[in-house]
């Protein structure tokens, strides 16, 4: 599990393509992977990946077809910047919200409004997923725990503070870029339960 508070930005240093998976290496800032153990979970752009090695400067992961197809890792290139977070411990402070690293959808950035020190973004999302997006609710974007600004007919808006722009790769996004979306699991459970309850009542 993760908290959605990005700890560092890493840079893709190597990509090897195989028949049914990618092998990637990521250069991380000094100290990020201290005491990292082989088999540990790391969030890469919000995607839960398994470390192939013990602590060293380069992070190494294998990315299977299912993950490639469901996330924006299918578009990564050498030199790209990705958001990184180590998995949380039971005693960790949850500064954002609990995230699993399981991506529901890759959405397109439809609008970016640059302000003096902040940015507003609009993200397009199909109704299938938009039903779970609530104004002032949580949403995960590229591994960042963010608060939803407004919900529109086919999209939602977010407001990015200077600190978020500084420590994540969201500042590098352009219009039409794909971002990884993780919907809050508790919201999904509540909405689906209410829908089933209402459907049952109507059928009586």
Which secondary structure elements does this structure contain, and how are they paired or packed?
Layout: E1 8-17, E2 21-27, E3 41-44, E4 47-50, E5 58-64, H1 65-70, E6 81-86, E7 105-114, E8 119-124, H2 127-130, E9 138-141, E10 144-151, E11 155-160, H3 162-167, E12 178-183, H4 185-203
Antiparallel strand pairs: 1-2, 1-6, 2-5, 3-4, 3-6, 7-8, 7-12, 8-11, 9-10, 9-12, 10-11
Domain Lumazine-binding: 1-97, 98-194
GO molecular function, one term: riboflavin synthase activity
EC number: 2.5.1.9
Number of strands: 12
Helix tally? 4
**Which fold name corresponds to the CATH topology of the largest domain?**
Elongation Factor Tu (Ef-tu), domain 3
Oligomer, anyone? single chain
Task: Please give the domain count.
Answer: 2
Structure, explained:
Keywords: Repeat. Its EC number is 2.5.1.9. The protein is an alpha+beta fold. The protein has two domains: 8-86, Elongation Factor Tu (Ef-tu), domain 3, CATH 2.40.30; 105-192, Beta Barrel (Elongation Factor Tu (Ef-tu), domain 3), CATH 2.40.30. Helices cover 17% and strands 38% of the residues. The strands form two sheets. The chain has a six-stranded antiparallel β-sheet. The chain has a six-stranded antiparallel barrel with strand order 7-8-11-10-9-12. The longest helix has 19 residues, at 185-203. The chain is globular, with a radius of gyration of 18 Å. The N and C termini lie far apart (40 Å). The mean pLDDT is 94.
What structural keywords apply?
single chain; 204 residues; Elongation Factor Tu (Ef-tu), domain 3; 2 domains; six-stranded antiparallel beta sheet
